[in-house]
Structure formats: structure tokens, C-alpha cells
Design a protein that fits this description.
The complex is a heterodimer of chains A (142) and B (86). Chain A has 142 residues and is of the alpha/beta class. Chain A has seven helices and five strands. In chain A, strand 4, helix 7 and strand 5 form a beta-alpha-beta unit. In chain A, helix 5 crosses helix 6 and helix 6 runs parallel beside helix 7. In chain A, 42% of the residues are buried. Chain B is 35% helix and 7% strand. In chain B, a hairpin with a 2-residue loop joins strand 1 and strand 2. With 86 residues, chain B is mostly helical. The longest helix of chain B is centred in the middle third of the chain and has 12 residues. A two-stranded antiparallel sheet of chain B has the order 1-2. Classes of the chains: A alpha/beta (142), B mainly alpha (86). The interface between A and B is large, with 59 and 48 residues. Strand 3 of chain A pairs antiparallel with strand 3 of chain B, so a sheet runs across the interface.
């Protein structure tokens, strides 16, 4: 079974029909379901998606219902340590191009579960995933 | 002694033996990705065994995603809202 990892920012594009690439993302999620693909993310998605719901005033219950589609990886001390200490090509930059901590946590989780595909629209995170070399990056519609 | 057989020889700060180990573990990687893996080996942070993980399986993986309620918020990028919060 293929394993498709969703970054929280990509997953949450589905909630706004006016969002760029919304329909492409919906179709991609449906194709994952039809192809017996396991969709997965880190539990930090719970925090990020709920924080989004509060920020843009959408019902939490609707966001939480989407969590039922995902397998969720719990954080552990080892996972957090590994995410923080992994050196990436972007770490040589001293500016905003560096990967942020939560981005690194999503990336490390995808590596550890041996994800086949990483769904992401953020250019910086996409580059970091690609630099690992073992995970395909997809941005449906982009 | 040729450069190819002498080891370790720094390659822009990287030891050739680490690069070779990375290449053996991941023969399909690009050169840039190999350098990244070699750096991890140098720091002893590229575990051969994956970390133990606790994964909660999806509760309703076959749920029709179209039945989930959506909103329309033109001018607001939910993706950017999350990225900004990081």
C-alpha cells in the first residue's frame, strides 16, 4: 500500500472552496481513497488545523471530521530530536529561506514512516523533501 | 595513489568514505541528496533502523470527502494562514 503524507497547510486547503488548487486537491484525496492509499500526517496537524479554524472562524467540528480520513503519527522524544537535528541544505541559509521547526517535524515524520509521496504546496518545504531523495513531492494542480 | 582509492579525502569538507556509504545505502539518490545523507552519517544521526512510531490508523478512510462541509473565503489562503502561524 502506498503511503501519502500530507503537510497540514496542504491538507487544510480543502476546507476553503475559494482556495487556489482546492478542486485539484479534493480530486487527489479522492484518488488516494480509490487507489487504496494510506493518507497520513503528524499529530501536529491537530494543532495547526484547529488553530486555523479559530483564526478564520470556521466550525471546529468540520475540520475535525476530516481527521478521520488520516492515519496520525504521534510525536515522541526521539522523533522530535531527530527532526530538530537533521541537517538540510537550507540550514546553510541565515535568512527566511531556512526550513522552520514545524516544517522539519512534518518532513522527519514522512521520512520515518517511509512515505512514498509528500503532498505540499510550500516551495521551501518541497525543496527540502526533494533533497532527501526518497520521497516524491506532489502539489496537485500547481 | 589515485584520488578514487585514497580515503578519507575531504570533498569540500566531506569524507569520501561517508559519501560512499551513503551511495551504497541509497544508490538512486542525486548527488545533492547523497551529500545530505553523508552529513547525517558524519554526525551519527542517520539511523539504520527507523524510529519506533505510534500510529493511529484512519477511522473512516473511505468516507466520501465531498460530504464534509466546506466554506468559501475568497481572498483568504488557508494554506498561507497555517504557514504564517509557523
Amino acid at each position: 500500500m502506498n503511503l501519502v503524507y500530507f503537510d497540514a497547510s496542504a491538507w487544510c486547503k480543502q476546507f476553503n472552496t475559494a482556495e487556489d488548487h482546492h478542486e485539484d486537491l479534493m480530486a487527489f484525496i479522492e484518488s488516494c481513497q480509490n487507489d487504496d492509499v494510506q493518507m497520513i500526517s503528524n499529530e501536529i496537524l491537530y494543532l495547526e488545523a484547529r488553530n486555523l479554524a479559530v483564526s478564520v472562524d470556521i466550525p471546529l467540528v468540520d475540520v475535525e471530521e476530516s481527521f478521520q480520513l488520516l492515519s496520525i503519527v504521534a510525536n515522541s522524544e526521539d522523533l522530535l530530536k531527530q527532526a530538530g537535528s537533521r541537517i538540510l541544505p537550507s540550514d546553510r541559509h541565515r535568512n527566511r529561506r531556512r526550513l522552520k521547526a514545524l516544517d522539519k517535524l512534518h518532513l522527519e515524520t514522512a521520512i520515518q514512516v517511509r512515505a512514498d509521496t509528500f503532498v505540499c504546496y510550500d516551495h521551501r518545504l518541497s525543496e527540502a523533501v526533494a533533497s532527501i531523495g526518497t520521497i516524491a513531492v506532489v502539489s496537485p494542480g500547481a | 595513489m589515485s584520488e578514487a582509492t585514497s580515503s578519507p579525502i575531504p570533498i569540500r569538507g566531506l569524507r569520501r568514505d561517508l559519501l560512499e556509504r551513503a551511495k551504497q545505502k541509497h544508490p538512486d539518490l542525486t548527488q545533492g541528496a547523497l551529500v545530505n545523507q553523508a552529513l547525517l552519517l558524519l554526525l551519527g544521526e542517520a539511523p539504520d533502523q527507523p524510529l519506533p512510531l505510534t500510529i493511529t490508523p484512519a477511522r473512516t478512510p473511505r468516507k466520501n470527502v465531498r460530504t464534509l462541509r466546506r466554506v468559501s473565503r475568497p481572498g483568504i489562503s488557508f494554506e498561507d494562514t497555517i504557514l504564517d502561524a509557523r
